């Protein structure tokens, strides 16, 4: 067995094997995470709303997501008339690529990372802003007015919130002098989490991140009371499920990034790093679910004002202060 | 007030016939008969004095059609009926839509049901009906619709505006609360103009009333306004009682008050759930329905149904209440008081909610009389207009309660007014239970077949959405000659185009949600 692997490695190189195994691992995490999150969302919303949530399929309704997946897979893939077919088919696929790439650089544990790229932050930010492209494609290709409004909103929102997201991260980068995610986590070893040094940056990053993932109170692209379902109004079956999968994965990535940058990543006493990592991440995921079931939605102009007039100046100020203090 | 208006009409308006009517028997203080030429003058006379157009309807007396305009004043009670006779062949009447904005819709309605043409009306197209009707439905003699009129559909995309961005909000849309359709002309996210298109739930209750006896019509009102079924049930019953001169025993009056207020809370709770949902918060909906369930249980115990109640009978009630009902109600009042604190924390104090609701959808006090809005919509502008106070019915004059008002007329004010109203309703229920007299719950010797004396009667009551009125014309038979329903959602919705213009689509949806419209009531 070992010999065979060695032989293959000689031909294509260790790096390639590592990437393939890593990507398979990433896919497993993505799918498992989506299953857990659909269950968690329904359970959390249930308890917040004084209901029980799913309980029929499996213990505590744990198998509900699987039943849902089977249902979605068995559904006929409807294509409405008058859609822009190539774009309409492409959008749910495209939304998935940036999501997968972002996973590559996240350090789940000290030795568990697909690839440590020395510009890891750039990779994540660059690819996460690609997802807006597929929302635009979906909105335009659907040939539906609600979808179009939703996708246009999404673009304005992403442009506005990418800036504070980046600015707040820059102060972290200033403190570590590195763009590599592993370096950032290692710099927080021993309880020196950046959330204590950079509380403002943490808040700005998390708020902007929630806006980037289109979650309540910033879920304007899919505001169901205004735009029916926003950019995915015309999608059903597995295509719709792909959008949802991507949304849940984006939520996970955001929380994983927040954990990595501000909450010390996999560092923590007693337990293995990977458990710490997932515990912190899912705690943040719970906060996002909590937002969703308690807050109303902000209005479009309020959303933009909040970013341009508050988050961006605050994160700029924070960056300047950080730079000044580091120089001293 | 009544005598002053009476003198004023005599002094300023010439050529019209004005007489004082018995308010107790007719439901209005003054009856005015005007020729066609003076109608605009009469309307202007009332508009100058801030009277609102409570209702505009038409009655077909075969020899002539009578257009009936009801005016009333928001601050001092003075109901005036203005009648205008038009010929049955090719009926033409002058419009008052340039004076009263609300007349736009009323006149369109009369045009499609009776075939009356209003000269000078800017857009005399169908309001409720589709284009396939052959005969005017409410005429007593079969009157065919002329061929050229059958095309009078509301055009969705006007010629020359092919490049304008139109959005059809509804009839299938999560935030139109039913099958209301609003055609929005948009510029990006901004609304240039909004036009409601009605009729998707039109069932012609007014025609149904003409074909069944008074008793047979009893279940119908619950289908007109389903969240506040008892409240509309009551106004129908009261109108017929007054028309026939039936005295209702004291105990029944109190029980009517209690059950109506319970129903009002249930209706407001439905709105309380739906309004934050329109703003994106889904959780309050579940909380509101949790509480509403308790009311439904209480009402189910005595009425037998959970939504479309038919509990009131001519002269009293279907059956008496018992100690269990009183016990359950008392427990509910106690529970509900505590729940308001939760609502306060969950919704009222939420920064995002306040930012969304404040300063949006502002309805100005100066223009409300042109629309004839009522209920919480008008109270939010600062006018304390509540029929429970101005024309007390049931036992409302024997209990002590206040009318909450707003100041600005925005969505937040409408929200606050309704929330305070629920607390007031609890207060009314408590007092009514404490004062509940014993005695019969049904008037004796109410004939099985009601044949009210000849004449007409307008009676209004305060439903959870505003003034709901019934105008009955009786010809001494056991079916009404004409029954007209004046519904609050209809006139409240009329303000929507003005409020939505120039706002963002999200604000327009918040405004629509704050009205608490019920589409079956609008379409009837």
Number of helical stretches of at least 4 residues of chain A: 15
Number of domains of chain A: 1
Tell me the name of the CATH homologous superfamily of the largest domain in chain B: Cytochrome-c3 Hydrogenase, chain B
> End-to-end distance of chain A, in Å?
57 Å
How helix-rich are the residues of chain A, as a percent range? over 70%
Q: Structural class per helix/strand content of chain B?
A: alpha+beta
- β-sheet strand percentage of chain A: under 5%
Give the CA-based shape of chain A: globular
The name of the CATH topology of the largest domain in chain B is Cytochrome-c3 Hydrogenase, chain B
Radius of gyration of chain A: 21 Å
Terminal residue distance of chain B: 34 Å
- Biggest sheet descriptor of chain A: none
What gyration radius of chain B follows from the Cα positions, in whole Å? 23 Å
Give the overall average pLDDT of chain A.
84
Quote the beta fraction of chain B. Answer: 15-25%
Most extensive chain interface and residues per partner = A-B, 28 and 29 residues
The CATH C-level name of the largest domain in chain B is Mainly Alpha
How many strand units of chain B? 15
């Amino acid at each position: 067995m070992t010999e065979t692997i060695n032989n293959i490695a000689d031909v294509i190189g260790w790096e390639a094997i590592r990437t393939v195994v890593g990507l398979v691992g990433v896919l497993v995490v993505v799918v498992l995470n989506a299953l857990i999150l659909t269950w968690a969302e329904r359970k959390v919303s249930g308890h917040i709303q004084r209901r029980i949530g799913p309980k029929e399929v499996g213990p505590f309704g744990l198998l509900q997501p699987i039943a849902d997946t089977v249902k979605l897979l068995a559904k006929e893939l409807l294509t409405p008339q008058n859609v822009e077919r190539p774009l309409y088919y492409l959008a749910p696929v495209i939304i998935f690529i940036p999501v997968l790439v972002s996973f590559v650089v996240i350090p789940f544990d000290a030795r568990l990372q697909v690839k440590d790229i020395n510009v890891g932050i750039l990779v994540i930010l660059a690819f996460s802003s690609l997802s807006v492209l597929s929302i635009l494609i979906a909105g335009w290709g659907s040939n539906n007015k609600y979808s179009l409004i939703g996708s246009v909103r999404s673009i304005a929102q992403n442009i506005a919130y990418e800036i504070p997201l980046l600015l707040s991260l820059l102060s972290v980068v200033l403190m570590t002098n590195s763009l590599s995610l592993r370096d950032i986590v290692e710099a927080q070893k021993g309880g020196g989490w950046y959330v204590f040094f950079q509380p403002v940056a943490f808040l700005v990053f998390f708020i902007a991140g929630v806006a980037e993932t289109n979650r309540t109170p910033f879920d304007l692209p899919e505001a169901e009371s205004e735009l029916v379902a926003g950019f995915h109004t015309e999608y059903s079956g597995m295509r719709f499920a792909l959008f949802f999968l991507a949304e849940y994965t984006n939520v996970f990535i955001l929380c994983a990034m927040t954990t990595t940058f501000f909450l010390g990543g996999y560092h923590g006493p007693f337990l293995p790093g990977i458990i710490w990592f997932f515990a912190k991440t899912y705690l943040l995921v719970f906060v996002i679910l909590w937002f969703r079931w308690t807050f109303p939605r902000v209005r479009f102009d309020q959303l933009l004002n909040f970013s341009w007039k508050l988050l961006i100046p605050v994160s700029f100020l924070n960056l300047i202060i950080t730079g000044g203090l580091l120089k001293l | 007030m009544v005598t002053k208006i009476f003198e004023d009409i005599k002094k300023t308006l010439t050529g019209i016939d004005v007489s004082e009517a018995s308010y107790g028997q007719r439901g209005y203080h003054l009856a005015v008969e005007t020729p066609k030429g003076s109608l605009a003058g009469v309307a202007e006379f009332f508009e100058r004095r801030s009277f609102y157009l409570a209702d505009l309807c038409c009655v077909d007396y075969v020899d002539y059609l009578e257009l009936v305009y009801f005016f009333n004043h928001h601050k001092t009670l003075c109901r005036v009926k203005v009648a205008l006779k038009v010929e049955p062949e090719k009926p033409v009447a002058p419009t008052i839509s340039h004076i009263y904005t609300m007349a736009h819709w009323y006149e369109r309605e009369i045009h499609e049901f009776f075939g009356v043409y209003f000269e000078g009306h800017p857009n005399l197209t169908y309001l409720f009906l589709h284009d396939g009707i052959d005969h005017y439905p409410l005429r007593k003699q079969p009157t065919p619709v002329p061929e050229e009129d059958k095309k009078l559909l509301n055009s969705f995309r006007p010629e020359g505006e092919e490049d304008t961005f139109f959005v059809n909000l509804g009839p299938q849309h999560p935030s139109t609360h039913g099958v209301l359709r609003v055609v929005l002309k948009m510029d990006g996210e901004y609304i240039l103009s909004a036009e409601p298109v009605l009729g998707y739930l039109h069932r012609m209750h007014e025609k149904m009333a003409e074909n069944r006896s008074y008793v047979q019509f009893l279940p119908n009102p619950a289908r007109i306004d389903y969240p506040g079924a008892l409240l509309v049930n009551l106004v129908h019953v009261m109108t017929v009682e007054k028309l026939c001169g039936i005295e209702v025993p004291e105990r029944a009056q109190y029980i009517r008050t209690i059950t109506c207020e319970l129903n009002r809370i249930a209706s407001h709770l439905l709105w309380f759930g739906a309004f934050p949902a329109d703003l994106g918060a889904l959780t309050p909906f579940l909380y509101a329905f949790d509480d509403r369930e308790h009311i439904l249980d209480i009402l189910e115990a005595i009425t037998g149904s959970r939504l479309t109640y038919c509990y009131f009978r001519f002269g009293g009630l279907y059956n008496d209440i018992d100690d269990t009902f009183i016990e359950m109600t008392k427990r509910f009042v106690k529970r509900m008081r505590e729940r308001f604190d939760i609502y306060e924390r969950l919704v009222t104090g939420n920064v995002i909610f306040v930012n969304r609701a404040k300063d949006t959808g502002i309805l100005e006090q100066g223009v409300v009389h042109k629309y004839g809005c009522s209920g919480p919509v008008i109270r939010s502008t600062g006018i304390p207009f509540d029929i429970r106070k101005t024309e007390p019915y049931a036992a409302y004059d024997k209990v002590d309660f206040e009318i909450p008002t707003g100041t600005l007329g925005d969505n937040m004010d409408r929200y606050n007014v309704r929330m305070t109203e629920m607390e007031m309703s609890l207060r009314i229920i408590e007092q009514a239970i404490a004062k509940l007299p014993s005695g019969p719950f049904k008037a004796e010797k109410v004939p099985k077949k009601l044949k009210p004396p000849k004449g007409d009667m307008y009676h209004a009551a305060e439903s959870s959405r505003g003034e709901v009125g019934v105008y009955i014309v009786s010809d001494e038979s056991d079916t009404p000659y004409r029954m007209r329903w004046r519904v609050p959602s209809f006139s409240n919705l009329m303000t929507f185009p003005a409020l939505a213009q120039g706002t963002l689509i999200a604000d327009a949806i918040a405004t629509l949600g704050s009205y608490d419209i019920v589409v079956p009531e609008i379409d009837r």
